């Protein structure tokens, strides 16, 4: 493409250009020329000024004259190129300095312009460099988003970015990982991401809920049993440690593991061997173990509720999933994504309401509320509003204060659509039934665990199970 065919950046936002040159005449003329092109120009007359401006202005392009005071030694100019990492550097050289220009290119300069500068060429190179930089930035952002999507672990907060980076780093190793964090913060997602980015993503990922079963049942689940080893053992059953062979065994809520099982798990972790229930010969299986808990395992070790030796075996690397309260700016992002997954939008006032809530159940709770609200939308409605979200959250919209940032009119609307026996009532019952069934399933039938997941009391859950005929 020739300089004349490249359109100016007329419709694009101004680029931040750092012009590093000690000649006052060029600073003035070059600066004015670039400003006329619509760029924001910062001028630096020596290396120190250039570095300071680079840090403060964060330019998208650096135009660098290699010979600068105090030494005027081009070697110093060349050394500067590496300090402008991540930004295209266009080197300004004398006409006869081809060799210098080539060395600059070797050191990472993006292009060079011979002096005296041809204005057409300057316009062309600047436009192209800025465009390249912006495309690179966009690509980087897309890659980041893709990485996020690929892991299923959404969130832009720095703590989430570090978590994803840690997962990428730890996943290809075989080291055991302990995932700590409050309920509903994505510990299982982390375990799955470790597996999917690990060495054997096609091998099985096998989750085990350690709190949902008695010690005996858990032993039989994990290590399997032989036919006849107890009433009801009609055939040999392989343990989950064998099912997970070559893959990942995810020990969810490991803090709830009965003491009798802790010692057996320890032996498996230390020696890779285990004894099926009713068996007489040790078997072996190689798995990667990822364990998770919302409990304070260290405190449990101190109180003697969790074996110290097992704790150290499990915590090869510790990853922490943050509570939603620690990354509030992520709430709108997550809500928008969950709504999009259900094919609906969210109004901006509803976003404000979501952002003001506390979310003690973390991402699980936020997701459940958005999904429930999407299910409750009336025909013709395409956006979730605060009213339907509050309804889904089980919040009484009462007078103004109940709903952060919303007026009192909403309260009456809830009363009107919530007439018992109506469409809404049936939808709510169905929703309740679904959420409870899912929680019971995820908890392996353990009511206390399901109640915890749902954020209700165990007694409350038992009543609901009876009322909905789910017992
Ligand atoms: N960062 C996230 N991005 C997208 N979805 C998330 C995120 N964190 C959690 N979720 C969703 O929230 C729900 C709960 O996640 P998960 O089961 O991984 O949490 P957990 O910490 O293991 O919970 P618990 O301690 O109760 O077992 C899932 O539906 C999951 O997809």
From TrEMBL:
The keyword Transcription applies. SMART domains: AAA, REC. Residues 16-130 form the Response regulatory domain. This is Two-component system NtrC family response regulator. The modification 4-aspartylphosphate is found at residue 65. Residues 153-375 form the Sigma-54 factor interaction domain. Transmembrane segments: none annotated. The keyword Acyltransferase does not apply. Keywords: ATP-binding, Nucleotide-binding, Phosphoprotein, Transcription, Transcription regulation. PANTHER family: RESPONSE REGULATOR PROTEIN PILR, TRANSCRIPTIONAL REGULATORY PROTEIN. InterPro entries: AAA+_ATPase (IPR003593), AAA_lid_NorR (IPR058031), CheY-like_superfamily (IPR011006), Homeodomain-like_sf (IPR009057), HTH_Fis (IPR002197), P-loop_NTPase (IPR027417), Sig_transdc_resp-reg_receiver (IPR001789), Sigma_54_int (IPR002078).
């Amino acid at each position: 493409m020739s300089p004349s065919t490249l359109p100016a950046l007329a419709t694009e936002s101004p680029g931040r250009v750092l012009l590093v040159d000690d000649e006052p005449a060029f600073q003035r003329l070059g600066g004015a020329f670039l400003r006329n092109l619509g760029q924001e120009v910062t001028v630096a007359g020596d290396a120190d000024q250039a570095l300071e401006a680079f840090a403060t202005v964060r330019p998208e392009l650096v135009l660098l004259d290699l010979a600068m005071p105090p030494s005027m030694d081009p070697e110093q100019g060349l050394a500067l190129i590496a300090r402008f990492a991540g930004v295209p550097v266009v080197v300004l050289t004398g006409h006869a300095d081809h060799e210098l220009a080539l060395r600059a290119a070797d050191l990472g300069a993006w292009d060079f312009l011979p002096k005296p500068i041809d204005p057409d060429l300057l316009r062309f190179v600047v436009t192209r460099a800025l465009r390249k930089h912006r495309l690179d930035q966009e690509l980087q952002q897309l890659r980041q988003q893709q990485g996020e999507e690929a892991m299923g672990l959404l969130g832009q907060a720095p703590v989430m970015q570090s978590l994803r980076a840690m997962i990428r780093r730890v996943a290809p190793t075989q080291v055991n990982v302990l995932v700590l964090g409050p309920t509903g913060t994505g510990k299982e997602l982390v375990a799955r991401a470790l597996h999917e980015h690990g060495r054997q993503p096609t091998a099985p990922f096998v989750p085990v809920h350690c709190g949902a079963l008695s010690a005996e049942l858990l032993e039989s689940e994990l290590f399997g049993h032989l036919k006849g080893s107890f009433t009801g053992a009609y055939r040999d059953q392989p343990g989950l440690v064998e099912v997970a062979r070559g893959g990942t065994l995810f020990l969810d809520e490991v803090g709830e593991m009965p003491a009798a099982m802790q010692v057996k798990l320890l032996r498996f972790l230390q020696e890779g061997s285990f004894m099926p229930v009713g068996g007489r010969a040790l078997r072996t299986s190689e798995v990667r173990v990822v364990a998770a808990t919302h409990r304070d395992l260290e405190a449990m070790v101190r109180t003697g509720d969790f074996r110290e030796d097992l704790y150290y075996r499990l915590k090869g690397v510790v990853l922490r999933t943050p509570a939603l309260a620690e990354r509030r700016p992520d709430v709108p992002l997550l809500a928008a994504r969950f709504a999009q997954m259900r094919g609906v939008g969210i109004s901006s006032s509803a976003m404000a309401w979501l952002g003001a809530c506390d979310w003690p159940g973390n991402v699980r709770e936020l997701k459940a509320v958005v999904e429930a609200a999407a299910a409750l939308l009336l025909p013709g409605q395409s956006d979730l509003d605060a009213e339907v979200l509050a309804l889904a959250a089980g919040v009484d919209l009462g007078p103004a204060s109940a709903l952060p940032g919303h007026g009192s009119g909403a309260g009456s609307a809830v009363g009107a659509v919530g007439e018992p026996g109506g469409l809404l009532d049936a939808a709510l019952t169905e929703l309740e039934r679904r959420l409870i069934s899912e929680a019971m399933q995820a908890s392996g039938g353990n009511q206390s665990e399901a109640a915890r997941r749902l954020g209700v009391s165990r007694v409350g859950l038992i009543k609901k199970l009876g009322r909905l005929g789910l017992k």
